[in-house]
Amino acid sequence: MTQLTFSELNSGRLLSPKLWGGLAPPSGRGFQCFDTQSGNPAIGFFDDFFEFAETTGTGGYLHVETTNGTVAQIASDGKTDSTGMGICRLLTTAEDNSEALLGYGNGIDAPFKLTGNDLCFEARVKISDITTSSHGFFIGLESIVGHATIECITAADAIYATADLLGYQQLKAETTAVDGMYQVSGDTKVDGAVNTGLDTIATIGVTDYIKLGFRFNAATRTVQWFIDGVEDSGARLSVAVIEAASADSFPDGSYMSPIACLVNDATTACNLDMDWWACAQYL
User: Which of 12, 44, 41, 11 is nearest to 27 (CA)?
Assistant: First the structure.
C-alpha cells in the first residue's frame, strides 16, 4: 500500500512534519486502514480532490447546499503552488444565509474519537473575502448529528449548538482572525472569547493558502494547534485541566468526522477553497 512517508512531508504545500510526525496518512484514494512507519496500525485518509463526486452521498461525502451554496470540484485557481491540482470549492453566493457544507463519511460514518490514540487533522485552505460581518466558516471535526444541519454557523453568528466540535472557526464579526474552538453538544462552546489562548491563533487572507491543523496527543491528553506547520504553544489544551473545571466539557464522548462549512451573512459572494485535507488516528 502506498502511503505518505515522513520524508515526503514538508512545511510548504504538503502536510506538516511536526504535526504528523510518526502518523503520516495513506496517500491512496479513499478511507484506509494502514501501517505507519513505526509499524502501528492506523486509519485515515488524505484527499487532494483530484477526483471528486459532486453529487451528495457519493464519493464518501455529504453536501449541504442551502439557498445557492454549492460544493464542487474546480480546476486549479492559477496559483503557482496548486497549478494542475484539483480543488474543492465551498461557495456561498450573495444571498443572505446561504451555506456550503462538506462532510466526510456520507453523513453516516464517523470513524474518529478524541480518546485512546493519537489523532491528526490538517487542511490547506484559502478564502476569497474577509469583509466584516460578511462570512463565517468552520473546519475540523464534528459529531455526525451536525453534518446534515442547515447553517452550521447560524444567522446569529453562532456555531450549531447540538453537536460535538473541535476545529477552527472564523465568525462573520471578524475579518482575518481565526480562533480555535471546541464544544460539547448542548454546552457553551469554548473559543477565543472564553479561552484567550484560542483567540486569533491563525490569520487568514484573500491571496494565500494557509494550513490549519491540530493533533490530539493521547498520552498527555492534550490538543496541539498548528498553523502552517508551526505549533501555537500558547493555545495548547489540556483535557485534564478542562474536565477538572467542568466534567465532560471536552468533546471526547462522540465519534466525529471532518467537516468544512462556509456561510454567507451579507450580499457579497464568497468561496472557501480546499487544496487538500487529511485526518488519521492510530488504532
Answer: 44
Q: What is the pTM of this model?
A: 0.92
Residue whose C-alpha cell reads 465519534 in the numeric block = 255
* Strand bridging mode 99-104 / 61-66: antiparallel
SS3 assignment, position 127: strand
Q: What is the pLDDT of residues 138-194, one digit of tens each?
A: 999 999 877 777 678 877 778 888 899 999 999 877 878 899 999 999 899 999 999
Instruction: Classify residue 226 by its DSSP letter.
Output: E
Helix runs in the chain, H state only: 17-20, 239-245
Q: Do 66 and 151 contact (CB within 8 A), yes or no?
A: yes
Q: Are 256 and 112 in contact (CB under 8 A)?
A: yes
Convert the pLDDT of each residue in 217-262 to its tens digit: 999 999 999 999 999 999 999 999 999 998 889 999 999 999 999 9
Which residue blocks in 116-215 are alpha helix, DSSP H?
A: none
CA distance 49 to 176: 26
Buried b or exposed e, range 77-100, using 16+ CB within 10 angstroms: bebeebeebbbbbbbbbeeebbbb
Q: Which domains does the chain have, with CATH numbers?
A: 60-282 (2.60.120.200)
- Share of residues in the chain with pLDDT > 70 (%): 91
Set of cell numbers at residue 177: 482572525
